[in-house]
């Protein structure tokens, strides 16, 4: 039986990255649900396309045991997080990420995902791939220049352009 995945989509989300996960999971029969890191299900991609998530992050909180893996689909995650750090949806996102990580569930993401995982306290001594401009932000983990890194339960890709290099490993572990 395939593992069930919760996908976090920030607002705005990087559509190219998000749709790679969605398409791969759909084509491989991996059940997933997309949660908007926002007050409503309506979010946009970085290019301005409106889309509707299945639910909002607030409704994932407390239901982490219903999922085997979490995907953090990046976008303008760090700047928007900084601008809206006090918003409840960002607090919920960090609590959900921390809960998934502490339970040892699969943590998957690209670009700034490693930074968010670091902020949640999940990268201690683990190798992570992330956007080259963000490497200096990793203090507890080990930032690399690899296209992707798999270290324990963390699966991180450098950018949306390298997700495909990691996807076969993700699919193997989720099937």
Shape: globular
CA gyration radius, whole angstroms: 14 Å
| Element pattern in H and E | EHEEEEEHHEHEEEEH
| Poorly predicted parts | none
- As a percent range, the share of helical residues equals 25-40%
Secondary structure class reads alpha/beta
The separation of the N and C termini measures 7 Å
Main beta-sheet annotation: 7 strands, mixed
| Spatial order of the strands forming the largest sheet | 5-2-1-6-7-11-10
Residue-averaged pLDDT: 95
Please count the beta strands (DSSP E, at least 2 residues each).
11
Helix segment tally: 5
Strand fraction: 25-35%
Describe the structure.
With 175 residues, the protein is α/β, with parallel strands linked by helices. It contains five helices and eleven strands. The chain has a seven-stranded mixed β-sheet, with helices on both faces. The protein has a two-stranded antiparallel sheet with strand order 3-4. Strand 10 and strand 11 form a beta hairpin. Helix 1 runs parallel beside helix 5. It starts with a strand and ends with a helix.
Topology:
Layout: E1 5-10, H1 15-27, E2 32-37, E3 42-44, E4 50-52, E5 55-56, E6 69-73, H2 77-83, H3 88-102, E7 106-110, H4 113-119, E8 127-129, E9 142-144, E10 148-151, E11 154-157, H5 163-174
Parallel strand pairs: 1-2, 1-6, 2-5, 6-7, 7-11, 8-9
Antiparallel strand pairs: 3-4, 10-11
